[in-house]
Write a structure and sequence with these properties.
The chain is mainly alpha-helical. The protein has a domain of 57 residues: Arc Repressor Mutant, subunit A (Orthogonal Bundle), CATH 1.10.10. 60% of the residues lie in helices and 5% in strands. The protein is built from four helices and two strands; from the N terminus they run βααβαα. A two-stranded antiparallel sheet has the order 1-2. The chain is rod-shaped.
């Protein structure tokens, strides 16, 4: 599939536009029909996948798959953030229920707390 523009390329790569542009300097296989830094870019998805898997010449060979690892960590982070949001919502509901119970108990009191 042919990807046209930095937005499409970055989405396919799972990165930001700025990161994809930075990767161009490191050999990302993009094509510019008209030469120049601000000209239109296009890329073939299979070439991008191959570059991610094998062709990142600047990558440290002792850390293979750094991009895939980054994607996995980002997915785990997203999942953990969602779990934390769910837990916080649950805690808010529990606090609200306890506050309602306390208010109900206080309303039921008929005898003053302190008598002289």
């Amino acid at each position: 599939m042919i990807l046209s523009g930095w937005k499409a390329i970055a989405q396919h790569m799972g990165s930001s536009i700025r990161t994809a542009q930075r990767w161009e300097r490191n050999g990302l296989p993009v094509k510019r029909p008209v030469p120049g830094l601000r000209s239109h870019v296009a890329a073939v998805s299979t070439e991008l996948e191959s570059w991610l898997d094998h062709g990142m010449s600047w990558r440290n060979h002792s850390a293979p798959g750094i991009i895939k690892c980054s994607r996995e960590l980002r997915q785990k982070n997203h999942k953990l953030r969602q779990q934390n949001r769910d837990k916080m919502q649950n805690l808010r509901l529990r606090v609200e229920a306890l506050q309602n119970e306390i208010a109900a108990i206080r309303a039921k009191r008929t005898v003053p707390r302190y008598s002289r």
